[in-house]
């Protein structure tokens, strides 16, 4: 695996640190790649906490394999190769999806939101992350078998040539090319129409429409205004409440009716507060609930929204309790 490039200062310093066993210098050189590697692991696994663990495993494996780095490839390329194979090894051991779950449910089972504050700081890497971190894209990727998933991410997300991807996966160019063709067909079948061009920008800075809808969504909760809440939803809504349900298409009336029949907006579950935020480069509302026995509003759920023409077209809900990495206050 070569990048056909001269050895730069980072690679030379890394080789010296590896040969001398200088753990501090080794950590300093690899740590700068943590965020981009974590986003890479998240694309592979769709689970923020697993992505954190596999990024750390990547660094441990890199240390154990440090003598194999000869500078023929960039340090970044070498780390991505390790991270990809760490994730593939993890996916082989991941608990299988129960046979009773539908394909759509199995594709979402492990999904967790990704906090925007953990995107790469480097402008170029951050741009790539923004384009391929939207929930619809991440879910579609999970429908690919693990090795197809790795090929697709290396080739179409990171832009690696076929030969470089084949080296990373100990495969052949022909196998990588075939896997990529199959992966693209699956992706086109799984992505909603607005995201079929996955190599173009998926997200942007929040628009005024998006900010207004998030504010109105929170206000409707705080006022227990079910009619107002229903008016914010498109009549054909793509809805998921993870990990129990989704995604499914339903009407706005059915969505709100389902929340009410499940106990929300009923006595004891009708005292709400909210905070506008973003995850996965998408507008979101963090919802806090105060029960009669409590003096504080406690973080309850986070609703990630896709807004089209001033209405919510997609709503993905996550249990937000016990997830400090979201960096949301636990109580209000």
TrEMBL record:
GO terms for biological process: DNA-templated transcription initiation. Residues 137-186 form the RNA polymerase sigma factor 70 region 4 type domain. GO terms for molecular function: DNA binding; sigma factor activity. The keyword Transcription applies. It comes from the Bacteria. The keyword Zinc does not apply. Residues 30-94 form the RNA polymerase sigma-70 region domain. Keywords: Sigma factor, Transcription, Transcription regulation. Interacts transiently with the RNA polymerase catalytic core formed by RpoA, RpoB, RpoC and RpoZ (2 alpha, 1 beta, 1 beta' and 1 omega subunit) to form the RNA polymerase holoenzyme that can initiate transcription. Belongs to the sigma-70 factor family. ECF subfamily. This is RNA polymerase subunit sigma-70. The lineage of its organism: Bacteria, Bacillati, Actinomycetota, Actinomycetes, Pseudonocardiales.
